[in-house]
Amino acid sequence: MTDAAVTVTAPAPALARLKTGLRWRALAAASLPQIAFFVFLALSWEGMARWLHSPLVPDIATIAREFLLICKNGFVLQEIGATFVRMSLGFLVALVVAFPIGIASALSRTAARFFEPGIILGLTVPGLVWALLCVIWFGVSLASPVISVALGVLPSLVISVQHGVNSLSVEVIEMSRVFRLHRTAVLRRIWVPWLYAFMISGCRVGFSLAWKVIVLVEIFGMSNGVGYQLNAQFSTQNVEGVIAWTLAFWLTMILIERGVFRPLEKHANRWKKGSSHE
Amino acid sequence: MSSDITVSDLKKTFAGGARRARSNAPLFDGLSLSITAGELVALVGPSGCGKSTMLNLVAGLDRPDRGEIRFDHGQADIDLSVVFQQPRLLDWLTVEDNIRVVFERDGKKKGNAAHITHDLLARVGLTEHAHTYPQFLSGGQRQRVAIARAFAISPDILLLDEPFSALDELTARRLRLLLQDLWLGEGHRPTGILVTHNMLEAAFLADRIYVLSGRPATFSSIIDVDLPRPRSLDDPVLFDVHRRIMQALT
Ligand SMILES: Nc1ncnc2c1ncn2[C@@H]1O[C@H](COP(=O)(O)OP(=O)(O)OP(=O)(O)O)[C@@H](O)[C@H]1O
Ligand SMILES: [Mg+2]
Question: What is the ipTM for the molecules in this complex?
Answer without folding.
Answer: 0.91
